[in-house]
């Protein structure tokens, strides 16, 4: 479903993603794990064609992100870190708007919108303005816009950040329902999130892949926490101070 | 085409469910009503004077309609930056731009949709202000053609600045910056022919051609001049072209 080859992204002099390659097969749920600032969001923005890579490329569902951006975009549903809502639109209006943008055929429009709203348990707030919703509901609306056109690949950037435990459980339930039909890539820095949802794991640290593999293989000997810390520390220079290490551990 | 309509329709609805468009329209109508009233008052005074001089035949077009349209140009220069400052800047600051930029629509479609939406809102605003010269046609006997054509010229003028406003808004994330930069640039552009009096012949001619108010003059005489039509359409094209290029360049930074 995704095949990345030497993806690289510079912002001016800063190299945010340092040539990463990976492959994700159809039907898997992949956790993209890493400390804050590791390059997760940049990687996602490259895959979703929001930003062009400085070097390297990737293909999504067989389409090249550099040359076939429109096809790539049709095949992904994307929830950015902040859900991209228009505060003055009603939830159903907004989902309809996104469905049109994503190219859902006119005849299927209302059915697709209804389905997305039902799947994300938004029926009772469908007529409310996006600005009136709680954070948990906003996130669910964000999820609904990502799935309304039934894309084969769904990319979620920190879908549970800033939510309360009940809302987190609700979002997790939604994600676990998605995995029957879609390939899901989920970025997070919360370990338990990966443990609960994902079949595969990619740990990004400092712009490179520190570790990747299936959850079963990787967690056979070590706990997820150990793996994460090990992966993150391996990237650090040997003389990194204890304070820095402590910051990473938090 | 469907994508352009989708974007434009959202833009129009968005404008009318938030207060900004209403505030700007109310302000525009208040100002245009005030100026129209003042011009009519002046015209009455002129009529009284003319009564004593049988050779003078002051016309409603010359004393009311033309200055009314000229004043509206200035009002538009101040209000259009407020109308267009949100356009792309808000999408970028609120994060919705990320949705648009990862949807299967092109930058051209996005910019055209944004402009089309704003152009409709501006047309509605101007259309409402037509009630004043419209009253003249209904109750007095001015020459009607210069009113209709002049109004069409004013609409082109407003659309040109709308396109330029969208372009200014594409540069930044901040609505305030877009608004202020837009206002300064619009004002400068509006008086671009001011140095023409002292400039050399060739330069003066270019400056006079570039001045948007001068391009409205033929319309206000009731003539649809192809030069002016091309002038305003080129400005619209320039604004849209710049917006597209700026948005695409920003991806590569």
- What is the CATH superfamily of the domain at 2-75 and 151-249 in chain A? P-loop containing nucleotide triphosphate hydrolases
Distance between the termini of chain B: 29 Å
As a whole number of angstroms, the C-alpha radius of gyration of chain A is 18 Å
- Tell how many strands the DSSP assignment of chain A holds: 10
Principal-axis shape of chain B: globular
Which word captures the global form of chain A? globular
What's the architecture of the domain at 2-75 and 151-249 in chain A in CATH terms? 3-Layer(aba) Sandwich
List the helices and strands of chain B in order.
Answer: HHHHHHHHHHHH
Amino-to-carboxy terminus distance of chain A: 34 Å
User: For this entry, what is the oligomeric state of its chains?
Assistant: heterodimer
Helix-residue proportion of chain A: 25-40%
Mean pLDDT of chain A: 88
- Give the strand line-up of the largest sheet of chain A: 6-7-8-3-9-10
Order of helical and strand elements of chain A: EEEHEEHEHHHEHEHEEHHH
What does this structure look like?
The complex is a heterodimer of chains A (250) and B (253). By secondary structure, chain A is an alpha/beta fold. Chain A has helices spanning 40-47, 69-74, 91-101, 109-119, 135-147, 165-178, 191-197, 215-218, 224-235, 242-249; strands spanning 2-11, 14-24, 29-33, 55-60, 63-64, 76-79, 153-157, 183-188, 200-205, 208-214. Chain A has 10 helices and 10 strands. In chain A, helix 3 (91-101) packs across helix 4. The longest helix of chain A is centred in the last third of the chain and has 14 residues, at 165-178. The radius of gyration of chain A is 18 Å and the shape is globular. Chain A starts with a strand and ends with a helix. Mean pLDDT of chain A is 88; it is low at 237-250. Chain B is an all-alpha fold and 253 residues long. Chain B has one domain. Helices cover 82% and strands 0% of the residues of chain B. Chain B contains 12 helices and no strands. At the A-B interface, helix 2 and helix 3 of A face helix 1 and helix 5 of B.
